[in-house]
Design brief:
74% helix
């Protein structure tokens, strides 16, 4: 240090001897530097003197001799003096200037590290992050290793910032949440924004802050689709949606999970769940998209394949897309169980009949009839109905010649005999349909048998009277014909009465079937489908907007704390019903019913009555009727269910 003092004293002025001044100044810098290297030999005053001496002589040297080969080292040491003294802001300025002015110098990398360490020592992590990102983007760093080190330091600092906010959130959630939101919004798709969003998601989950959770979750999924956090985020959103009974959002998250992670072990179950939810919501095309993806995945067993394919077919038929149903059958039938194959064949026959592919339908129909047994029908009412429909269609499609066959100007016994035989054959076909005891087709067969006999009675009544008969003979002839015709009319009336009696017995309230036996139908044919008892098929679709509905949101908040509380789920189902989202209301009830035990009969009855109303408002009268009856089975004194049942089974069968 003494050498440094002396060199400063004897340094000549620049005018007297420039070269000597340059050497002496540099010697002063080196002397003070050496003194500080052995700082333990200095007292506090001496150390401070040496630092100031190095800084003063160093800046003078660098200012007067900027092109000297020693200048970069001198400037680095000047910056290092501030760092050594704990004057980190000055050190940051000096080291940053050094890096900017001497990019290629070997000490530049050390200077970058020291700048970042200064920010770290000051706990100025935002400054550290900003500086690190600036040098990474500026192209100053050429070393791949240094780039990696700086990136890791920046990432650690970002984690530190977010972690600090997360910790403070436990005590001051409102302010910390806003800070995290701001960081996430400023993140611009970067790592810090991602970390802030993840912290926001995890903390809002712990704090039960549902609006923040769903909002941050959506941003994570769409802003950082390839993030390691996205899978966990979707898992959290799926679980939370289940807890609060929000099935519309649940279906969407399940589908997003499958789209991003198609090979995940949960994919088959998620596709089934999403398909069932979409079905319950009346979104049949979306449901089928999930089922088809499941069947095409190669990760489906025979039982799952049966359920998925027959759900697809039911949905195809509900939207009137017979062509898609045929295509789906041909595409996926090979995946079915043995029993499923038989049912699929039967469904295909029906579709071929409707498409008027009679020869193909006939060949496959023979296979179905050969394979089918009554025991199969007892175990599967849907298969029974398909087999009955096949026979009904076969009979109905061959009835055209019977109706066309008419007498013209004179009696033709061959025509009478032919029409009589056709009547017997067709009537026999419809009676075979009735023997299957499939309600819908039995009713239709009864009605068509009535129609045949009424047509034959008209055929007789409109027959020409032989011209050679006298007036009295003609009168007697007409009376005889009228008596014969009346026998067929009486038989027709019996068929129609049987139709009405069966409808009463089975409490039929299907609008399409009701037209066959309602008092408004003409004797010669049904009017076509009647209107549903209550047809509010549009309804509302409440998804994320439920978070903004005061009543529904309050129930969400309670459910997130007590998701197993069935009474809360009942209130939520009622709230959705009141808001017009009756399909979601039905899904909530269906999810809770299996969890109710024998001691909760009243709650079960209430839930079933609610489910019945959901079906009714969706235009599914038959399901509504059966559900109201189940509600009465749970509680025979339940007045609302009794009134609803009385209202949905109108006197359609009264002639």
């Amino acid at each position: 240090m003494e050498a440094g003092k002396q060199y400063e004293k004897i340094t000549p002025s620049a005018v007297e001897n420039s070269q000597k001044r340059k050497e002496t100044l540099y010697s002063a810098v080196i002397s003070y530097y050496q003194a500080l290297k052995n700082k333990e030999t200095l007292n506090f005053y001496e150390a401070a003197y040496a630092r100031e001496g190095l800084r003063s002589s160093g800046k003078t040297y660098a200012g007067e001799y900027p092109t000297s080969t020693h200048t970069p080292d001198v400037l680095f040491n000047v910056a290092w003096v501030s760092y050594d003294a704990g004057q980190y802001e000055d050190a940051i300025t000096d080291f940053s200037n050094f890096v900017e002015q001497h990019k290629g110098h070997q000490a530049a990398e050390a200077a970058i590290h020291l700048v970042m360490d200064c920010y770290h020592q000051m706990e100025n992590y935002e400054g550290l992050i900003s500086y690190g990102k600036s040098v990474l983007s500026s192209g100053i760093i050429r070393s791949a290793n240094l780039k990696k080190e700086v990136a890791q330091i920046v990432q650690s600092a970002e984690t530190r910032v977010v972690s600090t906010m997360t910790m403070s959130a436990m005590n001051d959630w409102e302010n910390a949440r806003e800070d995290l939101i701001q960081i996430a919004e400023k993140g611009g798709g970067g790592a810090m924004g991602e970390q802030a969003l993840n912290a926001l998601i995890l903390t809002s989950k712990d704090k039960k802050d549902l609006p923040t959770l769903f909002d941050a979750g959506e941003k994570m999924i769409h802003t950082y689709p390839n993030s390691d956090h996205t899978r966990d985020t979707l898992g959290i959103l799926i679980k939370t949606s289940i807890q609060i009974g929000q099935f519309r959002m649940l279906a969407d998250y399940l589908e997003q999970y499958v789209a991003r992670y198609p090979k995940d072990e949960n994919t088959p179950d998620f596709l089934i769940q999403a398909g069932q939810i979409r079905e319950g919501l009346g979104q049949y095309d979306n449901a089928n998209r999930n089922y088809r993806q499941l069947l095409s995945s190669g990760k489906v067993d025979r039982s799952q394949a049966d359920n998925a394919l027959f759900s697809i077919l039911a949905n195809d038929l509900l939207v009137g897309n017979d062509h898609a149903a045929l295509k789906d059958l041909k595409t996926y039938q090979h995946l079915l169980s043995k029993g499923g194959q038989i049912k699929a064949d039967a469904q295909m026959v029906v579709l071929l009949q409707k498409a008027n592919h009679r020869s193909e339908a006939r060949r496959l129909g023979q296979k179905v009839r050969k394979t089918y047994t009554p025991q199969m029908g007892e175990q599967d009412p849907e298969l029974l109905a398909l087999v009955a429909e096949i026979l009904f269609n076969d009979t109905y499609q061959t009835s055209g010649p019977f109706f066309k066959l008419q007498l013209k100007s004179k009696i033709d016994n061959s025509i009478v005999q032919k029409k009589t035989k056709l009547l017997e054959s067709l009537e026999n076909g419809y009676q075979k349909v009735m023997a299957y005891k499939s309600p819908g087709w039995a009713l239709k067969a009864c009605f068509r048998a009535n129609e045949l006999n009424r047509e034959f009675a008209d055929f007789l009544m409109n027959a020409p009277v032989p011209a050679e008969l006298s007036a009295d003979q003609k009168a007697q002839y007409r009376n005889l014909i009228a008596e014969k015709a009346k026998a067929y009319t009486d038989k027709a009336d019996k068929y129609l009465q049987t139709c009405i009696q069966l409808a009463e017995k089975w409490e039929i309230c299907d609008p399409q079937l009701a037209s066959y036996f309602s008092s408004g139908s003409s004797p010669s044919g049904p009017r076509g489908g009647l209107a549903s008892f209550d047809d509010r098929k549009g309804g509302r679709e409440i998804a994320a907007q439920g978070l903004r509905d005061q009543n529904i949101f309050a129930l969400y908040q309670q459910l997130i704390m007590s998701s197993d509380d069935q009474a809360l789920h009942q209130k939520l189902a009622e709230a959705y019903m009141q808001q017009g989202d009756f399909r979601q209301s039905a899904l909530i009830v269906k999810s809770i019913l299996p969890k109710l035990d024998g001691g909760q009969r009243q709650l079960k009855a209430d839930m079933l009555n609610l489910l019945g109303l959901s079906h009714l408002y969706a235009g599914r009268d038959t399901l509504a009727k059966e559900t109201f009856k189940r509600a009465l089975s749970a509680d025979t004194e339940m007045v609302p269910a009794r009134l609803n049942l009385a209202g949905i089974i109108p006197a359609l069968w009264i002639p």
